[in-house]
């Protein structure tokens, strides 16, 4: 019989309404977890929950804006009320945006950091007391851009690079409690975030050919984009007891993109 790594576990996924977060939520539920799907898009979070329930899994949705401390505090209280505690936090909600540095306004910069860095900080801050009770685990979705950049990415690359420091510091703050903190750093992955950068909608017929060309021309290594499920598999691995001796580090899930000079 296939073993279920998250049987009886309470898992929180932020940004669970789409892409990598949705794939992670579905993956955790398929391995036995009760999954709280947090997203600022309540309809999308609800859709992920329905997908999980339709296949017999356990899940519920909570609207949250990870930039806002009161919102994160309230969502944490709801999760603890429903699930009785928290074993895993997948701090995945994020936004991107690409502009040459001098074109980035202070508002753009602050909002990027508010979601990508403050959002992770607040999620850990409010959920870690419960993670400590269960010697739980945090997996942050960073980005391969923490290791290699591209033009137009000053704000995004800075925010994602900050997470490496945050993860190391948090890993040390909670190691004595058995709480592990790691980063999954995806390379370019086929989600609505990337489709949005290409200016195509969800079901655009042109997308498969554009995706293939992107992989061939812009992604050294395996020369293709990753799938949300491939990144989610790494999130699950780091969250599970398979990674019991891994903390404070980054796992690149980028098809060899950052291996190239
Ligand atoms: N797709 C890629 O190529 C790629 C590469 C590297 C890293 N990432 C990272 O992966 C994570 C997931 O991205 P994705 O590609 O699945 O994108 P996505 O846009 O499909 O999903 C992001 C989700 O985060 C939610 N979100 C955004 N701001 C929020 C907020 N303030 N509060 C709560 N939820 C919020 C969105 O509503 C959305 O559901 C992000 O952190 C992103 O930076 C993605």
Q: What layout of secondary structure does this protein have?
A:
Layout: E1 10-14, H1 19-30, E2 34-39, H2 42-54, E3 58-63, H3 69-83, E4 88-91, H4 106-133, E5 137-141, H5 154-174, E6 180-186, E7 189-190, H6 192-198, H7 207-218, E8 226-227, H8 228-239, E9 250-253
Parallel strand pairs: 1-2, 1-4, 2-3, 4-5, 5-6, 6-9, 7-8
What is the third-level CATH name, the topology of the largest domain?
Rossmann fold
> Architecture of the largest domain, CATH level 2?
3-Layer(aba) Sandwich
Shape: globular
Say which molecules are bound, naming each kind only once: nicotinamide-adenine-dinucleotide
**The named CATH superfamily of the largest domain:** NAD(P)-binding Rossmann-like Domain
Mean pLDDT: 96
H/E topology pattern? EHEHEHEHEHEEHHEHE
The main β sheet shows up as: 7 strands, parallel
Produce a short descriptive summary.
The protein is of the alpha/beta class. The chain contains 8 helices and 9 strands. The strands form 2 sheets. A 7-stranded parallel sheet has the order 3-2-1-4-5-6-9, with helices on both faces.
Report what the structure shows.
With 261 residues, this protein is of the alpha/beta class. It folds into two domains: 10-188 and 228-251, NAD(P)-binding Rossmann-like Domain (Rossmann fold); 192-224, no CATH class. It has helices at 19-30, 42-54, 69-83, 106-133, 154-174, 192-198, 207-218, 228-239; strands at 10-14, 34-39, 58-63, 88-91, 137-141, 180-186, 189-190, 226-227, 250-253. Helix 1 (19-30) packs parallel to helix 2 (42-54) and helix 4 (106-133) packs parallel to helix 5 (154-174). The longest helix has 28 residues, at 106-133. The termini are far apart.
């Amino acid at each position: 019989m296939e073993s279920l790594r998250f049987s009886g576990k309470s898992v929180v996924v932020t940004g669970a309404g789409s892409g990598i977060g949705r794939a992670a939520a579905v993956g955790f539920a398929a391995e036995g977890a009760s999954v709280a799907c947090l997203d600022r898009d309540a309809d999308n979070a609800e859709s992920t929950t329905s997908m999980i329930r339709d296949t017999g899994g356990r899940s519920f949705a909570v609207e949250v804006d990870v930039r806002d401390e009161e919102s994160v505090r309230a969502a944490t209280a709801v999760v603890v009320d429903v699930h009785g505690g928290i074993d895993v936090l997948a701090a995945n909600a994020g936004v991107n945006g690409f502009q040459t540095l001098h074109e980035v306004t202070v508002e753009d910069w602050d909002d990027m950091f508010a979601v990508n860095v403050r959002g992770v900080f607040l999620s850990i801050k409010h959920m870690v007391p419960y993670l400590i009770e269960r010697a739980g685990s945090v997996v942050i979705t960073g980005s391969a851009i923490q290791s290699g950049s591209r033009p137009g990415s000053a704000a995004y690359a800075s925010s994602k690079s900050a997470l490496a420091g945050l993860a190391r510091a948090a890993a040390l703050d909670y190691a004595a409690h058995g709480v592990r903190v790691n980063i999954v750093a995806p390379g370019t992955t086929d989600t609505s975030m990337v489709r949005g950068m290409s200016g195509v909608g969800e079901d655009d017929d042109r997308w498969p050919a554009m995706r293939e060309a992107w992989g061939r021309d812009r992604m050294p290594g395996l020369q293709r984009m990753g799938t949300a499920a491939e990144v989610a598999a790494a999130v699950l691995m780091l969250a599970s007891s398979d990674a019991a001796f891994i903390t404070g580090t980054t796992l690149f899930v980028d098809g060899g993109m950052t291996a190239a000079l």
